[in-house]
Amino acid sequence: MNRDLHVNDFDRQADQAAEQDQSPDEPGAAEDMKTGSMEEELETERQRSAEYLEQAQRARAELVNYRRRTEEELARMQKQAGERIISKLLPAIDDLDRAIDSMSEDDRASSWGEGIILVQKKIWSTLESEGVSPIESLGQPFDPSLHEAISMQEGANGATTVVQEFQRGFMLGDRVLRPAMVVVGSADTATDDDTEHTTDNENAESSEDRT
User: Fold this and answer.
1) Is residue 128 within 8 Å of residue 155, measured between CB atoms?
2) What is each CA distance from 17 to 4, 8, 23, in whole angstroms?
3) Cβ distance 168 to 147 under 8 Å?
4) Which residues contact 156 (CB under 8 A, 6 or more apart)?
5) Cα–Cα–Cα angle for 99, 100, 104, nearest 5°?
6) Could you give the CA distance from residue 169 to residue 117 in angstroms, rounded to a whole number?
7) 3-state SS record for 88-146
8) Handedness of CA 67, 72, 73, 78 (dihedral sign)
């Protein structure tokens, strides 16, 4: 009977040893599983961070583009508003220039004449500061982008020179604010008219200097 007990104990110990051999190293396996889980979580967080960064960069680019478009639109609206205002003022400026051109020497020398001429100078100073400049027409080749021909001088078929200016044209920067209304004729006539125009301007300037 003792021999049977020893045999049973031996079998039980053998079974326990076999079970121990077949079972994995539980602490090591748990550690490997924990490490693998942490790596998966880290990779997930990395992907999420990359997505957040991409979204933030896209939002920033959209904001920059929006600001740029807003600034460009505001500048365009301001420019158009300035052009409209100046265009509406041009007829009044034409009237003022014509009134001063028709003034006599005594009128120019008077206090009210000097006041009108001073107002004219201030207006032109303001226009020039805004980029407005007159279009030089007399004696210049006819340019459809700058001039509007209202008539052709008699007998000057094929002529391409501006010989008379009915209404002065103006530029605003590099854009035509108002084309000049002109008469097209021969170059000889343009030279004569231009000389008379220059003489008139010189006389007017001399008169202004005396005042």
Assistant:
1) no
2) 20, 14, 10
3) no
4) 163, 184, 185, 186, 189
5) 105
6) 21
7) HHHHHHHHHHHHHHCCCHHHHHCHHHHHHHHHHHHHHHHHHHCCEEECCCCCCECCCCC
8) positive
Q: What is the pLDDT along the chain (211 residues), one digit of tens a residue?
A: 444 545 455 556 556 655 555 444 555 566 666 676 777 888 888 888 888 888 888 898 999 998 999 988 888 888 888 888 888 999 999 999 999 999 999 988 899 999 999 999 999 999 999 899 999 999 899 999 999 999 888 766 667 889 999 999 999 988 899 999 999 987 765 555 444 444 444 444 444 444 4
Query: What residue type is assigned to position 101 of the chain?
Result: D
Tokens of 139: 């004696």
By residue count, the chain amounts to 211
Both tokens assigned to 73: 């639109």
**Where do the domains of the chain lie, and which CATH numbers do they carry?**
83-210 (2.30.22.10)
Residues ≥6 apart with Cβ < 8 Å to 65: none
